[in-house]
Amino acid sequence: EGVISPFMHHIGDLWQKGALRISHEHLASSVTRAFLEKLNTTHSISASAPGIIVATPAGQLHELGATIVSTIATANGWHVTCLGPSLPAEEIAMTALQKQARAVALSVVYPADDPNLSRELMKLRALLPPGMPVLIGGCGTKNYSAVIREIGAVEVPNLAILQRELNHIRRR
Fold this sequence. Notes:
Shape: globular
Strand order of the largest sheet: 2-1-3-4-5
Largest sheet: 5 strands, parallel
Structural class: alpha/beta
Helix content: 40-55%
Number of helices: 7
Radius of gyration: 16 Å
Number of strands: 5
Order of helices and strands: HHEHEHEHEHEH
């Protein structure tokens, strides 16, 4: 799972235990996000590469997972459009259609008990073309497994599965 995810989980654990202040967690996230965004600029992507839309659904406030997904997709030769945090289903779907994306990837981290998230995921599925892959990962996904299955999305429990799914979609 690399370095970034374990590092950020450790920071989150320290914050929950009270060993770090929220400002420390925000600083670690900000520095990590800047590092990943800089890393994304080092890749040369082919004009014929497939496109992917990466975001967090409406109400999901933590975007670092989406930034990690963007970095992995870019490293695997995808054109990435990262929309950031808390985007309504209509906006994600509209961008996917405009960009003629081959897939959508969502990060679900916090809050883990969002009462509106299931409705947003169902709305997104209805707005996307039939069969367009939707990949959903992040530590909050375990609370939404039923709706993820219901909409035919792929639950992505780790970064190795993400890479496998990206490669699978690309070969279609």
